[in-house]
Amino acid sequence: MSQEERPKSIDLPRFENEPHTDFSRGEARDDMKQALQNVRDQFGIDVPLVINGKAVDTRAHLTSRNPSRKLETLGTVASANADQAAQAIDAAHRAFAQWRKVSVSHRAEYIELIAAEMRNRRFELAAWMVFECGKPWKEADADVAEAIDFCVYYAMCMRELQKTLEMNYPGEQNSYFYRPRGVTAVIAPWNFPLAILTGMTVAALATGNTVVMKPAEQASIIASKLMDIGRDAGLPHGVLNFLPGTGEDVGQALVRHRDVKIIAFTGSQKVGLMINRQAAQTEENQLAVKKVIAEMGGKNAIIVDEDADLDDAVSGVLKSAFGYAGQKCSACSRVIVMNPIYDTFVERFAAACESLRIGPAEDPGIDFGPVIDEEAFKRINDYLAVGNEECEPLVAGDAGSLAKEGYFIGPHVFTNVEQDSRIAQDEIFGPVLAVMKARDLDDAFLLANRTRYALTGGFYSRSPKNLHRAREEFFVGNLYLNRNITGALVQRQPFGGYRMSGIGTKAGGPDYLLQYLLPVTVTENTMRRGFAPNSDEED
Questions:
Q1: Dihedral sign from CA coordinates of 214, 217, 221, 222
Q2: pTM surpassing 0.85?
Q3: pLDDT tens string 454-466
């Protein structure tokens, strides 16, 4: 693409991403080791609900376990029911009347205080993710950095959005501005337990909405730390409420309640579509149509062109497919290779897989750790059985004795994968990769686009013409050329897809906050005759 053909750039407010920790430094390694020990000393904690600023215990409890050591308990978490969901919504509804009136600058300062506290507690937060969600050191640290980015970026964006647009004409004044919608139900996933939860939550808070936070059951202790930080930042009671529990008991109660105006969800396609259906069922006394913002995963492909740099391609696919055990919605689960280089790529990729090291997430030397829980472990193994029956195994990584200690599954790669097979179409959410052969570039794009999803994709090529074709013909929300397809950064790579991958615009992008706002136009006739005296003059 020539310089003339490229879209003109848009000047955005200055923003700098939070740097990731350099664990090659001995000081950083020591800090992380100390944080892991400090967190381990806290195992056995009891985490309550928080409704209207008050800690609330419950009869039912969730047990948080370490997926690297499945017999190790981290603590217990209060599990809310539908009545407590209604109480939290009522608290948020009452708090909204005042929170919406708080100036944008003051709301932004609250969010920036949250970011500052996350910086202060960076290693502690990362350590909790290592233990509760099996995130390796670098992945956990990047999660905290992204949470900080969301806070700083959305505070900055809201300061820009507060500016009223004036369109005045003789005898008439017109203004265009935004108002918050109301109570927001944030329903978050476990795979980015702090970053995604924080992003959806602070987007709602910065725009003047109040929040009921429902974290994933597997990541409730980490989520409680965000609640603690929000409380310590001085958020008024009821503005942020913490409601852990099961989706069946709490999630549906939040989605169906008439006073919930926004539902911000990240998770599976099945649950996302169910939320969308339930939110669309309006009641007679409901005052607004619910706004659903949903990110629902992907079945992401990387295409390797015949002139690609195979060193880069093998490394990029390896990182994209097996980082965090393939448990990212952006992960590569299909690699589509041109026929002339197919055999070479397959041979080199199989050899590269042998270098991967699996182990407990607290071990700093591993490439990836366990999958999240027993349910995921069984589901992924069921897909491995399907792959072994329908396809040709290329790599079948053996977790060995680790599989008895935790939920460990080695890297698995299948070849001779048919385009309509379950291995090629279903989002497996684990360390499973399908290798597919393409006759030519037309065939490659056809294979890549032949799913219900459109989230991320990658293309390795040294041909400017083919790179241009990828921009035009590869239908995904985030397309990466000659690099891995995971690790999107706030503002730099706003994240989100379409088709069945998402409802709404991109997280970490300049228009994300608009989903949480209502645009309003006010027109005033200025040709009036005189002014009524104000109350002070009357007195």
A1: negative
A2: yes
A3: 999 999 999 999 9
